[in-house]
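Hey team,

Filing this mostly as a record. A colleague (T.K.) asked me to run one chain through the structure pipeline before their review meeting, and I want the input and output archived in the tracker in case anyone asks later how it was produced. No errors, nothing strange. Just documentation.

Input sequence:
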Amino acid sequence: MIKPIRDWDRFFFAPQTAKVLGLYRIAIGLVTIYCFALFAKDVTAFFSDRGLIPFSSVENNTHRDFHTILRWIGYPWSVKCALAALFLAGISFTVGFYTRTSSILLFLLVLSFHERNQQVLNGGDVVLRTQLFLFMFAPAGAALSLDSLIRRKRHPNEAAGPALVAPWAQRLMQFQIAIIYFVSAYAKWSGDLYRNGSAMYYVFGLIDFNIRGVERLMNYPVIYSGLTFAMLFVEIAIPFLMWFHAARPYAVVMGLLLHLWIMIVMTIPVFGILMVATYISWFSEEEFEGGFDRLRKAFGGTRWWARLSAVPETVVLPRNQATD
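Output structure:
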């Protein structure tokens, strides 16, 4: 009984370097800015009381509580100010400046816009929100951030070496992504269309979501049946294979093919970009360095990661201490 408890404790709390978490922070920050940049030109129509859905109509039709500051600032100019504040928080979060504070502000602002009008959202927005929620508790500014650079400048005599942090928040991010894939596969298998192999037939018929010409694949049962079962297999395999070092690259390749298909053929880019970005959280620093070493040998470049690795980071953190 002692060994499983020790392994569980090591899995969640054994200190590890913070560079992967920092890289993941940058990726999620950029995706967040990109997602709301797509809303920017329609922010008045989608999120203000002068737009398509006044907040009073939303409350009257849903009869539930809403966690959004936009219930009190419904004028177009105030909604635009809230969006500008979201962009500022997103930039601060991405570069790692006052990381803890900016992560909290960014989550609250993203939640406010999502709660204000759920009709313009998709599954990717929910994934983004859950990842930002967990980032509030993660030491995301410990590496690859302005916060870490400022700390080194202020305390040059502190112990050199990479910043070590407890990875429990990062583990929860990984569990969240694994659960998303597993539940998605379970829900699809619960329906008849995926069990009989015809699901992609109906997907190809959604001409409003597909590029022109994809609907012709409806004439080839072997293709749409094969793609149906392939998608189901990938969504079942990823949440299991990603936990194993040897199998992780194969899981990533399958995920890339799956989401590239969704992004290109079905023209749903944001969801695919976000899900591919979440794969960063699964890799260790050694795996990233090994991959960049192979790229450098193959193409004779890619030295920036080596330079970052050579720069002294912050002081080693105690296991249970969480900092920016």
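Quick notes for T.K.: The first helix runs from residue 2 to 13. DSSP finds 16 helices and two strands in the chain.
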